Amino acid sequence: MKASILIIEDNEQNIYLATFLLEKNGYRVTQARNGREGIALARLSKPDMILLDIQLPVMDGYAVARELRQNGELGNVPIVAVTSYAMSGDRERALAAGCTGYIEKPINPETFTAEIERYLLISKTNRSEEVCHD
Amino acid sequence: MTSQKNSVATLVIIALVTATTLLLGAFGISYYAYDRNRQLAILHHELAVNADRLATGLAAPVWNYDDTQVDTIIESSLMDKNIYGVVVNAAGNIHVRRRDAQWRIAVGDREFPAAGLIVAEREITLANKPIGTVKVFASRKFTEERLRKTLILIIATILIADLTIVFSLYLLIRHIMLKPLKVIERYAVTFSAGGGEGVTIEGSGFYGELDRLRAAIEKMVGLLDARYAEIQASAKELRGTHEKLAAIVQSSPLSILTIDPSGRILSWNKGAEIMFGWTEQEAVGRICPTVPESGLEDFRQMVARGLRGESFAGYVRHCQKKDKSLVEVSIACAPLISGAGATVGIVAVLEDITGRKQAEEAMKRTDRVLRIFVEHSPAALAMFDRDMKYIVASRRFLRDYDLGDQNIIGRSHYEVFPEIPYRWREIHRRCLAGAVEKSEEDPFPRADGSMDWVRWEIHPWYETEGEIGGVILFSEVLTERKQAEEELRRHRDHLEELVGERTALLTAKTDELKEKQAALLNLVEDLNWKSEELAIARERAEAADRIKSAFLATMSHELRTPLNSIIGFTGILLQSLVGPLNEEQHKQLKMVQDSAHHLLALINDVLDISKIEAGHVEIFAERFDMPTLLRKIMEKFTPLTEKKGVALTARIAPEVGAIVSDRRRVEQIIINLLGNAVKFTGQGEVRLECAIRGGEEDGRMVICVTDTGGGMKREELEAIFKPFQQIDNGITRQYEGTGLGLSICKRLVEMLGGTIGVESEWGKGSIFTFALPLQKE
User: Fold this and answer.
1) From chain B, which residues contact A within 8 Å (Cβ)?
2) How close B700 gets to chain A, by Cα (Å)?
3) pLDDT for res B294
4) B46 C-beta neighbours (distance < 10 Å), count
5) What pLDDT does residue B674 have?
6) Which of B235, B244, B377, B448 is the most buried (most CB within 10 A)?
7) Torsion of CA B621, B626, B630, B632, to 10 degrees
8) What per-residue confidence (pLDDT) applies to B734?
């Protein structure tokens, strides 16, 4: 069975776009419209991956990432920032907040799912290594 | 052999006589045989008639026993002298009559042998009763005699005929053949004895073939005469040529010797006499005296090669003179061929090259002196060949143009200075065609963005054949002088002003001083106020700048969000994830996608430029290898240029290596410039060049992008680095772009401590050049 992915995104069209692409490729998708809701859903559904917009109402993406990382159970879930903040330093800030990866908007529909696949693979190998260490 | 010496006449006569003799002989023999048969037949017939007549005549006497009558009849029959004898047997009574030795009639008593005689025997009958026999004998004696006479007659006739033929033929042949032949023979003898030129064959009596023979011989002799004259003429000419050749050999300043297979001198010309000191009498017959002791083996081999039929030249050897001193010669050898085609020795031609060597040395020295003279000349001088490659340059030239210790000899002027403007290249072309051009003050925009002022003069230089060999460039960099002059002028103006002021000040003196003090106080107050105002203004301006940057950053983000949807959904639709599209839908969606990508590029560039202006761009200096980066960029562009059919070449000078700068920014600049060049070049080539200028401390890496695209007009060049300036509105539609690329490049280059410039000629192409310090501070 394919991985489940949580999308935290406030723009209706963007969430639809990402959901469409992912479901088309067989992923199970859950959606959250703001950061708070996203954290709650993450705790509840324990997704295999979280796609996180940075500019969000209520609390921004950086804060969401930091909070998610503090939660023990979700500490190892790959969080990929999907953002239109393209200024230099934005990427670094996202990674510093706890994101695993960074996809710049506008997304390229031709490569988007391949990139998601790659991040899932990286986190899976990382996790198995950690299990071995334990 | 002897038969050939026999006269033709004798042979003809013998043949004819033989033929006649045989013919008449055959005829005579057959006639003789015929006559003999006839005579013998007559003899037999007469005998038979006699015998019959006797038998008849004797019948009565025998019957009557009339012996006397019998004898009388018998004797009467012997009247015929051919009858040898008659024997009659008349009933036992035998009557015999025969001839004695004298052929008289004698009475015989008995029968006699019939040897050699012809016999006819008859019975004597009376009333058909035999009464006796008669035998008549005939002798061939007289017939034989007659036949003998006939034979003699025949032989005599043959002899007479033969004699007649011999005589008459002799006369005939002598007259019509031998005499003309004799004439011809005499003529031939005379001719071969050497007289008889132009003589014809005299005498009449030439008939038929002989007459033709005479004509043929006369013609042949005529031809021989002509041929002989010809041969004599060419022999004379040959003698002349030979004499001329001998004179040339004798008078030649070269030594020309012929040497036999054993190495002995066969001939020795005047040149050899002068070159080596031995006279011809002294040299001929000796083993070649010029060969020193040590060179004998070499000499032998040389002779052997010549004898094998080889020709060779350019042997340089030392030869000794009569006075034992040595002379350096260049030797050429060839086999000496006799008239019969046999190799009978060698011909050697020796040239004294001591003088030539000295001349070469002198020339080299002149060349060296000239080079030193140019190199150390206190002016900036450079000499170029027809391809504008350096032949020699003065040290001053190298110093003035910051070429350091680079070896520029043999390299192209345009390779050393890629920034040389088109205008100058045009001038070089004119000078190479023979023009002399100069300028007292000419700006030279350098690759590093600075501007030099130069005074220059270009002359063509000529090869000895009168062809232009290249150009000589005299130049003087005036930049410093110009700056000094400028400064001097400013100083002078300032000084004059000062003097004026002083004078005014002196005249006004103390009363004005007070006024001035008051004014000064006011001024200071005013100034304080003004600077305060200035600070506020600056603060406001900075605030406005910050607001602008923040606005741009936000705008960029806000614009990206809807673009995400546009690009995303367009992509999904184009991938046919939702369902198949028809052709028109696909085409239109593609247009939407292209526009969206263009808009995105625009937003990125606006963001870039606003970040730069806001000072938000950080520079990450690192050490990286420039050739590697350039090759990577070239690879990226190759598919595009191949598709367009534009040649893409890189020329990276060998000294280019690592640089300390921001790799990503440098890449961005080069990609931008190359992208522009490829975009605006429809055909021709795009060239990327990289070289190092200056020394270790202040070294700069210069990168040039040259294209053969449309080029730009002078007024466009000035605005090219300003934002949103894509040249000529007419072209904008043809070449899409944001119009921000070059202004971003300029700002990035400046941030990296470098300079950027452009040279372009309308319709011919452009050269973008930027220079970066090798070490980023």
Assistant:
1) 553, 556-557, 560-569, 571-572, 575, 577, 596, 600, 604, 607, 611, 616-618
2) 28
3) 84
4) 16
5) 92
6) B448
7) -70
8) 45
Bridge partners for A81 per DSSP: A52, A102
pLDDT of res. B391: 87
Looking at the predicted structure, is the pLDDT value of residue B577 above 60?
yes
The CA-atom distances, in angstroms, between B20 and each of A127, B16, B31, B168, B603 are 150, 6, 16, 14, 144
Instruction: Report the gap between the CA of B727 and the closest CA in chain A (Å).
Output: 29
Q: If you measure CA to CA, which chain A residue comes closest to B570?
A: A109
Measure Cα distances from B32 to A2, B21, B146, B161, B376 in Å.
Answer: 156, 16, 11, 18, 140
pLDDT at B38: 92
The pLDDT score that the predictor gives to residue B26 is 92
> What's the confidence (pLDDT) of residue B210?
79
Read off the pLDDT of residues B708-763 as tens digits, 9 standing for 90 and up. 988 888 777 777 887 665 544 444 444 456 677 888 899 899 989 999 999 888 88
- Higher-pLDDT residue of B707 and A55 is B707
- Strand-strand pairing, B255-259 and A101-104: unpaired
To test the contact with chain A by mutation, choose from B564, B577, B604 the residue with the greatest count of A C-beta atoms within 10 A, namely B564
Nearest to A106 among B553, B572, B600 (CB): B600
Reduced DSSP (H G I as helix, E B as strand, rest coil) percent helix, strand, coil of chain B, to 5 = 55, 20, 25
The one-letter amino acid at B265: I
Radius of gyration of chain B (CA): 72
pLDDT the model gives residue A1: 66
- Total Cβ atoms within 10 A of residue A115: 15
Residue of A nearest to B607 (CA): A87
Residues 6 or more apart in contact with residue B639 via CB below 8 angstroms: none
What is the rounded CA–CA span in Å between residue B688 and residue B522? 62
Is the Cβ pair B565, A14 closer than 8 Å? yes
Supply the DSSP symbol for B240. H
CB contact under 8 A, B560 and A108: no
B217 within 8 A of B201, measured Cβ to Cβ: yes
Q: How many CB atoms lie within 10 A of CB B254?
A: 18
What is the pLDDT of chain B when averaged over all its residues?
84
Residue in chain B nearest A112 by alpha carbon: B568
Distance from CA of A19 to the nearest CA of B (A): 12
Contacts of B567 in chain A (CB under 8 A): 106-109
Q: Could you read off the pLDDT of B437-462 as tens digits, one per residue?
A: 888 888 888 878 788 888 889 988 88
Nearest chain A alpha carbon to B593: A108
Mean pLDDT of B174-194: 78
**CA B395 to CA B383: how far, in whole Å?**
12
Q: Which residues in chain B have their CB less than 8 angstroms from residue A7's CB? A: none
Q: Report the distance separating Cα B163 and Cα B184, nearest Å.
A: 30
User: What average pLDDT does the structure give for chain A?
Assistant: 84
What is residue B4's predicted lDDT score, i.e. its pLDDT? 55
Q: Is B571 close to A109, i.e. CB distance below 8 A?
A: yes
Considering only the beta carbons, identify the residue of A17, A55, A85 that sits closest to B569. Answer: A17
Residue B80 is predicted with a pLDDT of 83
Phi-psi region of B139 (alpha: psi -120 to 50; beta: other; left: phi over 0): beta
CA distances in angstroms from B498 to B491, B495, B503, B517, listed in the order given:
10, 5, 9, 19
DSSP B149-197: HHHHHHHHHHHHHHHHHHHHHHHHHIIIIIHHHHHHHHHHHHHHTT--T
Contact call for B600 and A17, based on CB within 8 A: no
Please name the member of A55, A87, A110 whose beta carbon is closest to the beta carbon of B571: A110
pLDDT of residue B182: 80
